[in-house]
From TrEMBL:
Pfam families: MAM33 (PF02330)
Protein name: Mitochondrial glycoprotein
InterPro entries: MAM33, MAM33_sf
Region feature (Disordered): 124-145
Comp. bias regions, Acidic residues: 128-139
Length: 250
């Protein structure tokens, strides 16, 4: 009797255990879990992806830094003539104010009670594609650099003449001439711009060119400025590259 009772208890316990095993097996083999198997491995896969992305980004930045270094070295290898030796004492009467990072250079001088200021902008390349009478381009387009200049001649009273010019090699062209009164508003200055310079009498135009030449704004000055500004273009480019490199290294 006791033996039969033990047999029944063992059978019941086995059936219960076997049922739990089948239940666990069914849960483990459920298709939805098979598709999302090994959830504990997913963080490791994500870490591997992030590591690969970080390596690619680092490689890209290192490549960019190498290219920047090559460009800097290439620019610095360009031979610059000593412009200070080209201008003998007294032949260039202006004081030069050149601040790195700015796209202009300011020249100043005093002459017979007048204060003269010349703002020199970066040079630009001018292409002349003019054709001959037959419509055939014999020599092809001619390229030359030009430099925008704004020349301001100011009297002690504050009254000034402002010349907008374009400087070419061995030549200066006046584009506009205006009178500036001290304390004038922007509207007043625009009203005092005067006539188109090209519409002036030829003798009057020649007189204004002579006016600038006497005050130091002449071909020899602008030829020096062409060399100076071309060197500044390179210096500003190198400075820009170094700033980009500094950003990439941080």
């Amino acid at each position: 009797m006791a033996f039969a009772l033990c047999i029944r208890r063992s059978a019941t316990k086995f059936a219960s255990t076997n049922g739990r095993v089948r239940s666990i097996s069914a849960v483990v083999n459920r298709p939805s879990l098979a598709r999302n198997s090994s959830p504990l491995l997913r963080p490791f896969a994500s870490r591997g992806f992030l590591y690969s992305t970080a390596i690619d980004r680092l490689s890209s930045e290192q490549t960019l830094l190498r290219v920047i270094d090559t460009e800097i070295n290439s620019a610095l290898q360009i031979d610059d003539r000593d412009l200070d030796e080209e201008m003998t004492p007294g032949s260039f009467p202006f004081r030069i104010e050149d601040n790195p990072g700015r796209q202009t250079v300011t020249l100043t001088r005093d002459y017979n009670g007048e204060h003269i200021k010349v703002v020199v902008s970066m040079p630009s390349l001018v292409t002349d594609e003019s054709d001959d009478d037959d419509g055939d381009d014999v020599d092809g387009p001619s390229n030359e650099s030009s430099i925008p200049l704004v020349v301001t001649v100011t009297k002690k009273s504050g009254l000034s003449l402002e010349f907008s010019c374009m400087a070419f090699p061995d030549e200066i062209a006046i584009d506009a001439l205006s009178v500036k009164h001290p304390g004038d508003s922007l509207e007043d200055q625009m009203a005092n711009e005067g006539p188109d310079f090209e519409d002036l009498d030829e003798n009057l135009k020649k007189t204004f060119y002579k006016f600038l030449e006497i005050r130091g704004v002449k071909a020899s000055t602008t030829n020096f400025l062409h060399e100076y500004m071309m060197r500044k273009v390179k210096q500003e480019y190198v400075l820009w590259l170094k700033n980009v490199k500094k950003f990439m290294e941080e």
